[in-house]
Amino acid sequence: MKMHYAHKLSGGRIAQIVGMFVLVPLLGLLAAGIFKAEAEHVFEEKYRLHAMVHHSHGLGPGAAVLVSGIPIGKVDAVEFTEDGTIDVTLLLLSKYQDKVREDSEASVTSSGLFVGQPQVEIAMGSRSKTILYDGATIHTVEPRDLAELVTEVEPVLE
How does pLDDT run along the chain (158 residues), one tens digit per residue? Predict the structure, then answer.
């Protein structure tokens, strides 16, 4: 009877093979983790802004924040204030800080026409205005809802 080839391997060679079966998946997990961290901008500098709104429209932590359609951050927190308004904390990438200025306006919108994920859209500010720094509050504009639009369109259709 012939011996299986594995019985002919030395102890050191078997240890090398087992080590490779352990090391390769660990390196794969590490690479996937680094790739995910890069995609989430974990290693980039960020700053926070506050937006005070009367209705969150389903906005929650993790929602996208866009300037002219370009993602520049995420919603960090959504909390009630003492006066009943809602404080939306925005966590934004510092490399886009010069785009958000004193006259910029933030509004809660939807990623689709009628349905979609809620997001915060920021209108880019004028270069002549001051840049908003960490902890500042950005001016907000309440979005118009469907009922408002219908009442405006009705006279035109008649």
Answer: 666 666 677 778 888 888 999 999 999 999 998 888 887 777 789 999 999 999 888 899 999 999 988 999 999 999 999 999 999 999 999 999 999 999 999 999 888 766 778 999 999 989 999 999 999 999 999 876 666 667 777 666 66
Burial class (CB within 10 angstroms; exposed 0-12, middle 13-18, buried 19+) of 48: middle
Q: Is 3 helix (H, G, I), strand (E, B) or coil?
A: coil
Among candidate residues 42, 57, 27, the one with its CA nearest the CA of residue 118? 57
Domain that residue 53 falls in: 46-144
Q: Do 11 and 72 belong together in one domain?
A: no
The Cα 100–Cα 72 span in angstroms is 10
Task: Specify if 155 maps to a domain.
Answer: no
Cβ atoms of 136 and 49 closer than 8 Å: yes
Are residues 14 and 74 part of one domain?
Answer: no
150 belongs to a structural domain: no
